[in-house]
Amino acid sequence: MTDLPGIVITGASGRMGRMLARTVQDSPRARLIGALERPGHPWTGQDLGTAMGGAEIGVTVTDDPLEVIARAQVVIDFTAPAATLEFATLAAQARVVHVIGTTGFNAADLKKLEAAARHAVIVRAGNMSLGVNLLTQLTKRVAAALDEDFDIEIVEAHHNQKVDAPSGTALMLGEAAAEGRGVALENVSDRGRDGITGKRERGHIGFSAIRGGDIVGEHDVIFAAAGERIVLRHIATDRAIFARGALRAALWGLGRKPGSYDMIDVLGLGEN
Ligand SMILES: NC(=O)C1=CN([C@@H]2O[C@H](COP(=O)(O)OP(=O)(O)OC[C@H]3O[C@@H](n4cnc5c(N)ncnc54)[C@H](OP(=O)(O)O)[C@@H]3O)[C@@H](O)[C@H]2O)C=CC1
Ligand SMILES: O=C(O)C1=N[C@H](C(=O)O)C[C@H](O)C1
C-alpha cells in the first residue's frame, strides 16, 4: 500500500480538482497524499473528503505548496498559468513528475516550463482525453492529404466559467493542422474576427469560441471546400475523461528522464 506513488492535486476545490481527487482516490495504483489550494482558501485545514461533501478521507487541504510537493512523487495540476509556473519551479526542485492540464499559457510561460523540464518530468497537454489526442492525429493526416482549396476552421464550445480562448484543445488541433500542412501556426492563425475583416485568406486556420452554460468541451475541425466539407468532431460530456488521462500520465511519467512530454507520448499515438 505504502509503495503506491503519492499524488498531490492542486486547485483541489476546482471543477477538475474535485474530479481528479475522486479519480486518484478510486485508483488501486496511486495514493492521494495531498490537496493544495490558494492561500486563504476556505477549504484550507479541512479534510478534503468532507470539504467536498462526502466522508473523511484523511487528506487535509493545505495552502503550502513547498511542504506538500516535497512529500509527493507526482503533482497533478489543473489550475491557472501563474500558479502552474510556481508549482513547476517547486516540482523541478523536488524532481517530482508534474502533470499539467492548465491552459492559457503565453510564449514566455512556455519557455519557463521548458526550463523546469530540464530538471524533472513534465507531461503537459491542453486536453488529456484519449479521444481528443486521437483527433489531433486524424487532423494532421487530413490536413496533410488536402490542399489549401480546403479552408480549415476550428470551432470550440465550453461552459460560461472558462477564462481562456481559444481553448487549449483548439490550439492543439490548430498545431496539428498546421503541422500536417507544413506551416507554422503562428503565421497562419486567424483569431477573433470582428467587423470588416476582409475576405478569408487562403491557407489560414481560423478559430471561433462559444461560451455558455455547462458545456464540458466540444471541438470541431472543419475542412471546407467548394461543394464539400469534412467535419472532425469531439464532444466531451464528462470531465472524468480528462482526470483518467491525467492519472495515466502521472503513472507513465514515473521513472522517466527529465523532459517535456505530452499525451501523444503517454498514449503511444506518435508515428514511428
Ligand atoms: N488539459 C485538460 O484535459 C483540461 C484542462 N483544463 C484546464 O484546467 C484549468 C482548470 O480548469 P477548471 O478546473 O475548470 O477551473 P476551476 O476554476 O474550477 O479550478 C481551478 C482551481 O485552481 C485554483 N487555483 C488557482 N490558483 C491557485 C494557486 N495559486 N494555488 C492553488 N490553487 C489555485 C482555483 O482556486 P480559486 O477558485 O480560489 O481561484 C480553483 O480551485 C483550466 O486552465 C482549464 O482550461 C480543464 C479541463 C481539462
Ligand atoms: O476549461 C475547460 O473546461 C477545458 N479546458 C481544456 C481546454 O482549454 O481545451 C480542455 C477541455 O476542453 C475543458
From TrEMBL:
Transmembrane segments: none annotated. SUPFAM superfamilies: Glyceraldehyde-3-phosphate dehydrogenase-like, C-terminal domain, NAD(P)-binding Rossmann-fold domains. Keywords: Amino-acid biosynthesis, Cytoplasm, Diaminopimelate biosynthesis, Lysine biosynthesis, NAD, NADP, Oxidoreductase. (S)-2,3,4,5-tetrahydrodipicolinate binds at H159, G168, T169. Pfam families: DapB_C, DapB_N. InterPro entries: DapB_C, DapB_N, DapB_N_CS, DHDPR_bac, NAD(P)-bd_dom_sf. Its EC number is 1.17.1.8. It is an enzyme of class 1 (oxidoreductase). Coiled coil: none annotated. One of its GO terms (biological process) is lysine biosynthetic process via diaminopimelate. The active site is at H158 (proton donor/acceptor), K162 (proton donor). Gene3D superfamilies: Dihydrodipicolinate Reductase, domain 2, NAD(P)-binding Rossmann-like Domain. Residues 131-267 form the Dihydrodipicolinate reductase C-terminal domain. Pathway: Amino-acid biosynthesis; L-lysine biosynthesis via DAP pathway; (S)-tetrahydrodipicolinate from L-aspartate: step 4/4. NADP(+) binds at R38. Homotetramer. PANTHER family: 4-HYDROXY-TETRAHYDRODIPICOLINATE REDUCTASE 1, CHLOROPLASTIC-RELATED, DIHYDRODIPICOLINATE REDUCTASE. Belongs to the DapB family. This is 4-hydroxy-tetrahydrodipicolinate reductase. It comes from Roseovarius azorensis. The lineage of its organism: Bacteria, Pseudomonadati, Pseudomonadota, Alphaproteobacteria, Rhodobacterales. The gene is dapB.
